[in-house]
Write a structure and sequence with these properties.
about 600 residues, 5-stranded antiparallel sheet, 12 strands, alpha+beta, 4-stranded antiparallel sheet
Length: about 600
Amino acid sequence: MSAQNEHDALSHPPALYDHALHLLRQSSGGIPPRRGFSLTRGRESREAPLSRAKAHSAVREALNPLPDDSATLHDRLAGLGLGDSHVHVIRSAVADLPLPDDQREAARSLGRHLTRYGATEPAVAVGLALLVRLGEHEDIPCLSVLGSFREFTLPAVNALDRLDRQRAAVVWLGVFARQTELGPLLRTLWTGDRQDIRAELVALRAGPRVLSSAVARRIAEAAQLPDLLDRYPSDKALLAQAARLLVRAGCSRDNPADLLAYRDAPTLYRSVVTRAGMLPSTLDNHATLLSLALDLSSGTAALLDWPSGWRVTTLESLERLLAEPRWASMSDADPGGADPRLRADWIRRTGRQPFGRPAAPRSLRIEVVAGDPVGRGSVETRILLDGRPVVPAYFNHGPANSPEFLLDDGRLRAGSDPSDVQLAEASCTEACCGALYVTIRRDGDQVVWENWRRSSSTPGQGEPVPELAAYRFDAESYDTEVARAETDRSWSWPARTTARLINAGLVERPDLLSRWDARRGWISSGFDAPDTTVVTFDYAPGLGSGKPDGIPLQFRWVVPDDGTPPEAQATAALNRLAKEDPKTYGHVCGGSPERAAELGFSWPDGS
């Protein structure tokens, strides 16, 4: 290399687009590694921190006037103190940048130049942010390549979502969904062979831990499922897999925004339900179709942008199908085994629930919905106002709270004094991703729900929900609906009922635990084993007297369902607590290894 060429190579580093192409050619199957390629390469950012307002102002200054090339933009950004550590705020500032009509074409050209030739992360970030707003079909190849860098995946996918949902889904899956079970399907999606995609989709065996709502939605988009079903209209295995993916995409334990962002969801629901009659009448298929009906009736699917009449007729089709003898008799057969028995019992309890009449205008409807136990479905108190489920419409981080929380403790009852009620909490905890609250009060012959808000992990930063105005209900009708929901136990099963009765007994007699220096914790049916009752409690010396010596340990006691009535099982459990120290049959499940050793207990293996 000549001295001049060496100088040019050093002063003009390679474009990040070219670097990504090089990495993809070297990678196995031309697919990025799990979590994508990294741009960090061990460097440390040296930029001084900037407030959001100052960073936005600096970005506007750097782009006024629009630069001619990436080098000029890089120099401007660096001169204003903006570097790699400011990439997120740079993208935000470009998203908010005013772009008059006479500048849009120049801004689009700049975005293309920056994404194709930009050699620094900030410059390419500006280009991607411009193409999120202004990208066109010709930008798809470049966006797809840059999306293989984890730092650029989300903006690249955001831009692709406007242009090519299928390609956006493939890029997203290639970086974020790289579990072993998904490997063969992802490789075929990346190459785009429709025959192979069908075969691998049918062969996919992935449980709820792998198929989050986001992964399920992106697989449906990447495989173009409605078109695939039309291409193979008699493929029963493909149809069953499409139905399972729809159930996972609408899972209330995950993010409802995933299903709502899936534009083809109404078409896929119709396509699946229209063909559902050819599915074999198995417990698995019955549970899948019932789960779809529950979501259409009172879950996230009720919020989709349905063509007029589609949702009602789709639900009616499911109702007619599941009422046929070959399906109706499934839950009455002896399934054998633990999981089939749990599922059959769930179908018997839940089979008619989604097919009730819609709510009247300005009315409150409360539906306690227990999801498929094999699919790790949650038990939630769905609140419907005018027939629309509130929680998935206005809160993206978790399902509605349990009936034990909202109904057993009377939190939805309206009194003369206003009460703040938490309707949903983030699956990770409120301290992490917040919760949804409403204030409930009685006003004469009406009950008012007002002051809707989402809480925040940052004190004083709660977010109002402006889309929801105050709701007023006829007080008599409201009280009747709340009382009905509080007394309706048709959704429950023995282990869950046992848990409720044990909890009620411990509320009434706290001394059953305090005598052992213990304090009541979470009590419910098991998450992984719903046919068991789980009792948790805290322990520390002196806790029973209100003067604990140190930080408590958490214990877990699992009570199997022995087949006797829940009342008898709860009484037996409470009697055991009265006579035997629960630390002798419970197991440590929380705290710290050091604290466990200090108090003479074993720490669980693998924790």
